[in-house]
Amino acid sequence: MEEFKPYAVLAIIVAIVILLVVDRIRTALVFFAGVILLYVSGIADTSLLLESFSNQSIITIFLLILLTAVVQDNYNLIGVLDTLFKKAQSPRKFLFRMTFSVGSVSSIMNNTPIVALMIPYVYQWSRKAKTAPSKLMIPLSFAAILGGMITPIGTSTNLVLIGFLRSAGDPLLGLSDFILPGILVLIVGVIFLSTIGTKLLPSHDDVVDDMRQNIREYLAETEIPNGSDLHGKTVAEAELRNLDGIYLVEILRNGDAIRPVNPDEKLRQGDRLFFAGDTSRVVSLVEDVEGLTWSKKDKFQLGDEIDILEVVVPYNSKLEGKTLKESEFRENYDAAVVAIHRNGERVSGKLGEIKLASGDLLLLITGKQFSRLSNQDKDLYTVSVISKRNRQPAWKRWFFGSLVLGIIAIILTGLVSLFKGLIILFTAAVVLRLINAEGIKKNLNFDLFVILGSALVLGNIFIETGAAELVAKPFIEFLKPFGTTWILIGIFALTVLFTSFITNVAAVSILFPLVFQIIHDLNLNPLPVYLTLAFAASAAFITPVSYQTNLMVYGPGNYKFKDFLRIGLPFTLIYGAVVILFMLNFYQING
Q: What pTM was computed for the model?
């Protein structure tokens, strides 16, 4: 039975990789199913599961996420940005300052909320400067990824790798290992994005501008004339609910907008009704519904207070895989979806039946409660409106800010561990009420917890059963004659291939056992090899699906898949060359 375990583990790993690439099932579910199979079959025991899911690296990741939320919600980061970018009049100057600033901040804060904060700011700056958002959004994401490589805490990938090293008993990677190559790739990356990169980036039209210019492709306008039989009836009684391929998004009455429209809303003569979806179907609606006519207004105009907002469905959103009807979108967000954009194009078909995917850009007509409702979770990120921060007494912000600086100084001196320092800061944030139970719940992602814990289980089992040795042997035999340099290049290339189509955490969990085996079989210096793995796992530049910040800017930039490939491929080659050359020279690797 024991001799079959490595092959069973390999089969499960291969199945996980295939399912992640196909991307039909939620990532967390795929990982957890793999772990359950290992547990039920007796390959993984209870102690390994408990040890993996309570790993210090995982708790550290969530502490960083919560502390990032504390800073974002309570400090005027937008004011800091205004100061930084005030003199950046040209797009190139703005791009340079923006990428360098985002990269620097992402080295110590979780990069997902940083990008979420920056998207509206960059979007509004591009509109004021009359620059296509597509020239700025990819650099924003890439800068956040690059900055995450400056420190061990800059990205969850680094912390997961450190978790593996801790479990395996290998030397841990620290700040001194990351900081030099991290700063180097950030500088090279910023220069590339500000020069050659701008020429490789597309210049796509803004989605909202396109909608306003071609409004009749998105909305159809009808009205209820005087003497209509619909006068006095509710929307439901008039059979204007659950229509085929279209739905009522707004009623304009005497200049006042009613949106979203409730089924018990009573219709009045003179009302102008706006329908979204497959607007060609409104022709048959007007023919079939007695008392409904085409609007006779010369000018197509929605309510004066209309909010056409862009929102992005982020990675691991609860909306992923659900239709608008299934998610009860209108009721839960006080908003109606006018259009869905995916891969740079408007998705055709019945809006209510389209399954949402991460990276989708939704155009919304919102009601008064949208801001409050959308701020209660992280299932949508608003693109075109900058979120407001909480109002807290100045002394609290000053005290907490001073404490943060003090704890960082103590951590750097080695008197307190990173983990203990984060615990102290989080406790202080709770005591000062800079974050409450609702804020903690909002920022904790259960899917991420499942993915991280499952990844550690899979990686450890991969090594313990000997499955890693089976995979590593042919890899070693092929590259060993070429020397250590080509082993590093091989590890980098293989990791980039994995991280381009599955999550970077998945790439590390699958490839760490392979790298671990190579290091110990060939008696290599572990530091440059593990660092190469870490930097390659974060080289998520070639595809939009490879990293959640790429998916976040995918819709706002109105990008197509090929846009990432066009800039990401040369960027990855330059990034890889910098990383490999640094490892060879700094660690004096010959051969």
A: 0.80
